[in-house]
TrEMBL record:
This is 7-carboxy-7-deazaguanine synthase. Its cofactor is Mg(2+); [4Fe-4S] cluster; S-adenosyl-L-methionine. [4Fe-4S] cluster binds at residues 31, 35, 38. Transmembrane segments: none annotated. It comes from Candidatus Erwinia haradaeae. Its EC number is 4.3.99.3.
Length: 223
């Protein structure tokens, strides 16, 4: 498979179930959703004249919309050659599920890594059964793209951005469509760390035994 890659770097996972875990991030280029609060807007457009070599992407000094088209073997080689210590890999974007992630997750897990996908759930999720899937449903944000049922069913974690009370109501409505017995982690993430959103998320998490997801990388000022 050929994947459009914006960044590969090592840091801490800053949000959701794996908060605080050392992780290698593989950030994909390209996302059609267009969330207003997105903090990686430079990954939205895959502009032809911004394509570079993978090695040039690895030498980036700042975040930008440059990207490289590469395959799963070269991605693994880059990760191995850097000698990073993290064993957890986060496949994120952009929107990684625009692509078939089975070849990538297979080769990474065969090499001993654990994998996590972060996705909007607007596209079918194609990965190994062992991959941890975090779906952040994007409901009524795009005119034609919404989170699909397959993505909600596959999700191990549903991490929902919250700004106001109606966001909670919308999430509950979506969760009610899940009729299986799978135990999913439900995480609420206050948008932009707004005070009223944090208070709302805390109260809801306590009342429903859900989790609070704060983007600690923003507090720590790390990538």
């Amino acid at each position: 498979m050929k994947y459009p890659i914006n960044q590969i770097f090592q840091t801490l996972q800053g949000e959701g179930f794996y908060t605080g875990v050392p992780a290698i991030f593989i950030r994909f280029q390209g996302c059609p959703i267009g969330c207003s609060w997105c903090d990686t807007k430079y990954t939205w457009d895959k502009i032809a004249n911004q394509e570079m070599l993978l090695q040039e992407i690895m030498n980036k000094k700042k975040e930008n919309d440059h990207w490289a088209l590469t395959n799963e073997k070269k991605i693994l080689n880059v990760i191995t050659n850097f000698g990073w210590k993290a064993q957890h890999i986060v496949i994120t974007g952009g929107e990684p599920c625009l692509h078939d992630l089975r070849p990538l997750t297979i080769i990474l897990q065969t090499a001993g890594f654990t994998c996590q996908i972060e996705t909007s759930g607007a596209y079918p999720i194609l990965c190994t059964a062992e991959t941890w899937v975090t779906v952040s449903p994007k409901i009524k944000i795009h005119k034609t793209l919404n989170t699909i049922h397959q993505a909600l069913i596959r999700a191990d974690e549903i991490k929902y951005p919250v700004a106001r009370k109606r966001d909670i109501t919308t999430l509950i409505t979506y969760l009610d469509t899940l009729c299986d017995q799978k135990k999913r982690v439900i995480s609420l993430q206050p948008i932009n760390h707004m005070t009223h959103a944090i208070k709302l998320c805390i109260a809801t998490c306590i009342s429903r035994n859900w989790r609070l997801s704060l983007q600690i990388h923003k507090y720590l000022n790390i990538s």
